[in-house]
Amino acid sequence: MASSPLTLPPRPSPSMELSCAIRVLPCPSSSPTSCLSFSSSISTFPLKSQFKLIRFLPPSISIRAVSVAGEQSGPPQQTLTLTTTPANSPQRLLKELAERKKVTSPKKKIPPRRFILKPPLDDAKLTQRFLNSPQLSLKSFPLLSSCLPPSRLNNADRTWIEEYLLEAKQALGYPLEPSEKLGDDNPAKQFDTLLYLAFQHPFGEGERTKARHIRNGHSRLWFLGQYVIELAFSEFFLQKYPRESPGPMRERVYALTGKHVMPKWIKAASLQNLVFPYDEMDKMIRKEREPPVKSVFWALFGAIYLCFGMPEVYRVLFEAFGMDPEDENCQPKLRRQLEDVDYVSVEFEGRQLGWQEVAAYRPPEDALFAHPRLFRACVPPGMHRFRGNIWDFDCRPKVMEALGYPLQMTDRIPEITEARNIELGLGLQLCFLHPSKYKFEHPRFCFERLEYVGQKIQDLVMAERLLMKHLDAPGRWLQEKHRRLTMNKFCGRYLREKHLHSFIIYNEAVQDKYEHNRRLRNPTSTAVQQAIHGLSYCVYGKPDVRRLMFEVFDFEQILPKPV
């Protein structure tokens, strides 16, 4: 039995047309309901399904409405046409892309000023710029002159000096009169300018601290100041603790000058408002508080050292900032101490020196050394027992000849020259005395204490050399240059190039190991070279350290090599 086909009504198409005629109102006074006419050409399907279809269309799809002639007569009707476009239509995508480009396309960025190439200055303008620079204004103080700003201070700088410099001077304990009134032969005449530069750290928010002459001047000061602080504390602790090894001293220095405690000293001197004029220092997080404080702290001591010297550095450290070396937070960690049975110099016996004695000490006119008390703190009196031994007879003349010792000195009494040369020979033997030889029985009979002060004076001398040599270089560039020139592996290499490493005195049990293992030999030769710099500083002063570093060992590697 054949079944008849089932005929279903046609489904409404999604593009079903909805027609509506909207008549324009002839006059505003007529009733709204009397002027509107709707005529529908929709099939007999329920209107609910039609509006459901329209309701759920995406907002990006438009609906085309076609006007059908209305049944009512009247003026011509205006029609609104909305076209339905598929979601993946290329025309629609291109149109949306064009609209989005109009809104979101960024403007062309102008390159920063530092990347814009400028024509180089001609020789006349460059010469005039250098001649007008304050860095060439002081002939008698080359180091101080090199740390002045490369151009003269402007009105904004003068305004800061007039408003805030008196507060800084009062907090640090300096007279309030302008330093420009001092004589030209006094380095303190430039103190106001350097003190202003010390507070202009680059972490502030203003255009004044971003100026090139301020930015470079401040960075050069903190570059110098960090080594000034290290040398000051090394000399102080070597004289205060004449029997202590350098390890505990380094811990004391870090506990007093680490960046985690610098905000404490700045606040103790009431300088926090000058460092952070717009913020409260105690409420700042650590990574925002410590870098500006460290920068200002180092730059302050660079300025003080240039204008007043090392005694004033001690006064500001211990009086203005209130540092206490005896504080329990500054004590080194407990370690096994070797028994020291040897004598110390008479001036250290039974007492500890204070910072006032170290700062106020001036060597007598007929003193054997440039720094006699520091020499006696580093070279124990018992070294005289080694006088006339095999090393003193065989190796000492060769070492002194390689180093250019003894220097020609004009002493009033000939016996002073003879005594100095004897002490110099004993100090040189101590510089070459490795800890493996006698340290466990006599803890101070090795080069460790001389190495400690030699490392610090070597850093300071190199910093001064770079500042005077590169007048226009910022501090960070100088810091990297300094690090590369004084790297430990290079210091030991310079000593080995002079063939002086063969004179180092080892214990017989480890001598073969140290001489044939570069991982042991190179740090030892580095320590010996730094100890020689420390001895040179104690005996002849800083000028002889410069001579050793740049003429004998040629740290900068600029002297011609022998063929």
From TrEMBL:
**GO BP:** mRNA processing; regulation of gene expression; RNA splicing
Instruction: Provide the Gene Ontology terms for cellular component.
Output: chloroplast; nucleus; ribonucleoprotein complex
Role description: Binds specific group II introns in chloroplasts and facilitates their splicing. Acts on both subgroup IIA and subgroup IIB introns. The substrates of the subgroup II also require the CRM domain proteins CAF1 or CAF2. Binds both single-stranded and double-stranded RNA non-specifically, but lacks endonuclease activity. Required for plastid ribosome biogenesis.
Identify this protein by name.
Answer: Ribonuclease III domain-containing protein RNC1, chloroplastic
Q: Which keywords does this chain's UniProt record carry?
A: Chloroplast, mRNA processing, mRNA splicing, Plastid, Repeat, Ribonucleoprotein, RNA-binding, Transit peptide
**Coiled coil regions in record:** none
Which residues are in the RNase III domain? 194-309
Q: Which organism is it from?
A: Dendrobium nobile (Orchid)
Q: Which domain of life is it from?
A: Eukaryota
Q: Where can this protein be found? A: Plastid, Chloroplast
Q: Which Gene3D superfamilies match?
A: Ribonuclease III domain
GO function terms (MF aspect): double-stranded RNA binding; ribonuclease III activity
Q: How does it assemble?
A: Interacts with RNA. Part of large ribonucleo-protein particles that contain CAF1 and/or CAF2.
